[in-house]
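Internal QA ticket QA-208
Title: Verify multi-chain structure generation after dependency bump
Assignee: T.L.

Test input:
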Amino acid sequence: MARIVAFLTRTRAGKGRMDWTDWVTYGYLLFGIVLMFGPVAWLLLSSFKTGAELERFPPRLLPVAQDTLVVEGYDEPLPLFKMIAGDQEGRTLAQIRRVGLIAQMVDPAEPETRLKVNVADREPIERIAFAWSNYTDLFERLNFPLYLWNSTAITLTATAIMLVINSMAAFALSKYKFRGKLTVLALVIGTLMVPGTVLLVPTFLLVSQFGMVNTLWGVIIPGAATPTGVFLLRQYMITIPDEILDAARMDSASELKIFWRIIIPLSAPAIAVLAILAIMWRWNDFLWPLIVLSENDKFTLQLALNSFQGEFLTEWEKLLPATVLTLLPVAIVFMFLQKYIATGIASTGGK
Amino acid sequence: MLKLLNPIMRLVEIPFLLVQKRLGIGMTAWLFLAPNLALFSLFTFLPIILNFSYATTGGEAILLRDRPDVGFQNFGNLLECENVLDPSSCRNDLFWRAVWNTVWFVVFQVGIMVIAALATAIVLNRKIRARGLFRGVFFFPVLLSPVVVALIWKWILQRNGLLNAGLESLGFETINWLIERHWAFFWSTFISIWAHMGFYTLILLAGLQAIPQDVYEAALMDRASPWRCFRKITLPLLSPTLLVVLVLALIKGVQTFDEIYAFTGGGPGSATTLIMQFIYETGFGVQPRLLGVAAAAAIMLAMVLIFLTALQFWINRKKVDG
Amino acid sequence: MANIELRNVVKRFGALEVIRGVDLQIEHGEFCVFVGPSGCGKSTLLRMISGLEDITGGEVLIDGKPVNNVSAAERGLSMVFQSYALYPHMSVRQNLSFGLENVRTPKDVIDAKVRDVATMLQIDQLLERRPKELSGGQRQRVAIGRAVVREPLGFLFDEPLSNLDAELRVEMRGEISSLHRRLGNSMIYVTHDQVEAMTMADKIAVLRAGLVEQYGRPLELYNRPANLFVAGFIGSPKMNFLEGRISADDPAEIVLDSGERLRVPAGKFSGGPDQRVTIGIRPTDLDLSGDGIRLDVGGVEQLGGESHIFGTTADGRKLTLHTQGQTPVAIGEEIRISVPSDRMHLFDTQSGKTLLSE
Ligand SMILES: Nc1ncnc2c1ncn2[C@@H]1O[C@H](COP(=O)(O)OP(=O)(O)OP(=O)(O)O)[C@@H](O)[C@H]1O
Ligand SMILES: [Mg+2]
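Actual output:
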């Protein structure tokens, strides 16, 4: 911002095809890409690094691994080094073991002779290598699939319930005149003003009264009747001409059929937007699941990820790929549906 | 896909038709309204009322009938204070720390975020190549989950992280970012801005695009400098949108919880404990669970939020009328 | 027994009384047009007949049976809407078959009926298109087709042509008329275009502010308007009105406010001495020759085949006169026009009712 103001206050325009304001613009955009995208790219690259590489300071950009070679007479593959000084300069040696500043090495070509070299005289031979095992480990050794399942189940069920009941309510509130309509509308608008976050305590009581603590339903049900969803859909349904409904009534359609065969297909764009938003909200939801779900085997991905932090404080090689997998669905959805999401979020005023 | 559900709808239609015939078309509205309204009453209206019951009862029990009536003690617990500016002089010092943390957090987060969002929106509104792509770049963090945001930045800020590596390569001392309280607060504010700025950028961009282009062309004919264009045209015409953004950001900012909780856990000490975390931890976190105190704090928070929301409605109405 | 009958029908929206007691009888096969100014309650009345709007008071009967409590779906009428109200997400074929599906018609019957109606209305080439891919006239045909395919007891049209351009409107007007002749069903047709009313109707109901002002055959309304409102509303160009009173000495003489005198056929009108009256005379009925009332010419339109003269009478009333052929009259001229007594309409000024005796 400071840069922009500094530039904006300068009065003389630059020559050439690019105005100075264009330079500022593209500079800002470049800065923006680095700042907004850089951290995610860094996460992605880091998630493919081996544990040893992750601990390295200063870190390197790309995931690399040392070349290894199976040498005759040794069970494990041995790490390879290139000698850069001393007697053996120029040779490629494999390390057997290292003691202090001295390493025992062997030339893979003549495995019988052991050589002692100074560690300062050598350089590891490395190549870019992605540690996919970080990811496979998540599935093989951790409960990751369970959390993934919990999150998916909650997201899909909650979204489906929300779409059905919200669109029904929006239909009633947009296309019927009935006694008490204004009261209902006022109540719904009123609750738009009271965010769910301040009702945690009593909502928790209700959920526990229904025996839904520590169940996925406890996460799904309380948030299903969102006023935001009702409003988004109602605003859209209001624009469907009443005459079409009247025409359907003349065509002997029941009100349910009107809803199902006329209103729902015609509201498809709004419903799609709401569906995407709902999926995002539910997938990313944190505080309410944190309160309702206390047992590890009911955790959602978000909760699991948060608790991984404590368990694996230093085990970034587990935490990073888990983070990547958590953001992956959102990233994919975003790539394909950017336009819908943007307009949807702008029209609801967020969550 | 809808076709698959058609047979189900046929079945549902039979009882529905009976009711429709009985009660008339007007009443069918209630049928459509019923499921949503039921959940709504149960999990929104009822809790609003129950919140007051909790706020005026004490003890650790969840069931209301097991909770002794304590009048306004819970509020007293929170508000009893010699000097509100100095949390350590208060009976519930954590509450006041959280309050002041939230105030400072909101001031910095909202202030900087709105300015940055405005700058970004202005840049994105210029004639640039690949605008959609850039808009996406600034917007996508909005969709990341708070925990993911927290972990992304924790990884960069950790002791052996990218940032410290950068500092060292420039010859500076490395810093323990999340252990020093002021830095922890700074980065908490920062990641919150990082995560939410895109949303406000989007709204402001829509506002900018609503300003007719010919106004600028007229100004150009009048030889107005870019800075004057900004001051005399963009800002005044954008000010209603800017106000909405400001209030919206305030409402959201006051309720911040997830990303900070996952990022610092409120620490070090209570340096980044915000009011929502206070409510969560008082009611659900550490033992004893003081549900009454949490409800009382929630009611006070709700009053602030209702005030802000009313402000937003008022501004919106003025915007429509004006 | 009438096909559709209204008995003292009343409609209130809250405190607002929109239909204030309408009685009508529409015979089998009749083409009935509701005309009236905007907001007079035409659509409301039509929707009450269709069943889309509740009836506050009175009774609607179809084939002699009261249908107040029968839903729109079961009254057996179909309706064509002003905006066509086609289902935008369905193809033309689906639009036509939706209603038949709702009443559980077998699939092959639906197909046959849709094919017949599409052929009749010349939309058989368009069956797979969506409404958005049709022109205005084609949409109109589909809307009519959707009404026809269900073989209803009667058709209701609410200003079906008002979204079409002038040329197409004339064409569709003819088509609806010929459709009526072919099907022979009762039709109720709402419009505020009195040309449509005159050309299509068997019977016209002129509505004003929720009341039927006159109900009758088109020429009956034209020749014998029951009151000032109908006289002014029916007929284009609009009827001229002059004011005066019946002479105290001679019931067949009228003294205009300008002092000029006009003769009316003795016995044709009732009315007492000195009664204030309004004289109606159509612009086409006025005569340039003769030595009647004075007119200051304010404007002349020469259309070649006919001429329109606009002027002011001695008591300051605007008057329009249409003559055949071209006219030598020029602006600023002062002319005398005669008012043929047999073409004159006479109304009581106060009540607006016609003074036509019998
Ligand atoms: N749902 C309603 N609630 C209240 N008043 C209504 C409603 N529908 C119509 N009205 C009023 O009833 C009167 C008659 O309306 P209606 O639509 O029948 O007029 P119309 O003769 O069809 O006019 P137009 O030629 O413009 O279509 C109007 O004054 C209108 O404002
Ligand atoms: Mg109408």
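Spot checks passed. The mean pLDDT of chain A is 80.
Status: verified.
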